[in-house]
Specification:
The chain has eight helices and 18 strands. It has 408 residues and is an alpha+beta fold. This is Outer membrane lipoprotein-sorting protein.
Amino acid sequence: MAPNDSAETTGGTTGTVVGRRRAARYIVPVAVAGVAAATIGLVPALADSGDPELPKISAQELIEKIAASDQQQLSGTMKVTADLGLPSLGGLAGSFAPGGGKGGDGSADPQAKLLELASGTHTLRLAADGPGKQRLSILGDAAEYSLIHNEGEVWAYDSGSEEAYHAEADEAGTGDKEHKAPKGMPATPKELAGEALAAAGDTTSVTVDGTVQVAGRDAYKLLIKPEQSGSTIGSVTIAVDAENGVPLKFTLAPSSGGKAVIDAGFTKVDFGKPDASLFSFTPPKGAKVTEADELKAAGEKNGKADGAPGELAAPEGFQGLNVIGEGWTSVARIEVPGGAGLPARGAEGVPAEAQQFLDALGDKVTGSFGSGTVFETRLVNALMTDDGKVYVGAVTKDTLVRAADSAK
């Protein structure tokens, strides 16, 4: 690897950098998120082809390069893998996948269709021409799902089920027709990088970890590691284009080891102006078209939050959440309406088979808070106490128990 200067990023300097980051315009809006993301082992050596010799750069300079990047145009192919350690969604996921049939709400609503990105490996095609034009396509075996945003108008189309969805950008949950794409667009490496950098501070080590080639582009590797114990996140690595500062690949490794939890990166990328035809769409003859306001009306009828497509209403009596701790070991505490937890072992009316199933879902734990059950994935864990409180975070089981104890 080509040598590079490394630097610990302190809370003070990071604050300035994050401010600049927030001022930079991103290429494609956040999705998954959800991450969840955005929420993204991707062919482990994805498009890597050597360690190019590049000028030395410090971590601070590389973060500033990302923040200053104003690349407005690109097109390319990306592979995204999410491995949270969850059971396969099986047929449920298939109903939302491109060509998966007319399941769900009977539309190509992005907030339902993009659920499939929460697990497995996926190939995406991306194009962007400024903040007003983006296109994302999820490639299936025999079908394609496309989401197109063009100056405030949103179209989505599933070629397998021949279903289409149409909305103005504000109806799709953006609130801004001119400059924001539809809510639910999957995150690019740049946006995943932004989330990681926003968390950097005195709890975080940020260094330059050599160089790499991604999608034929020379890049620096920015390595972000928690300095706190108790997080399920081991490290975040971001490959940053050496020329224009655009993140090309994002990898989140768990502290428990093994393959990445999220790995998203370009296999091909072009920073020229995409063809204008990519952002135009007319529903094919015979396609079933669902308007956003139709889903909104159906959502209001069924009790969804504000009638928005794909969003569930907050339960009546929901008490919100409080955050315990800081940095990488932050834990959210949520009050469950009515204070109802999982049924206690031997509870009246709970069949033995049902109890066995509940026991298999998680691990029973005890502490000064009382008792409860911990549900674990490779990234996010949750503790539900028997008196109906939930503690959740990207932290270990022991950290969750300590958080619950401290809240008593």
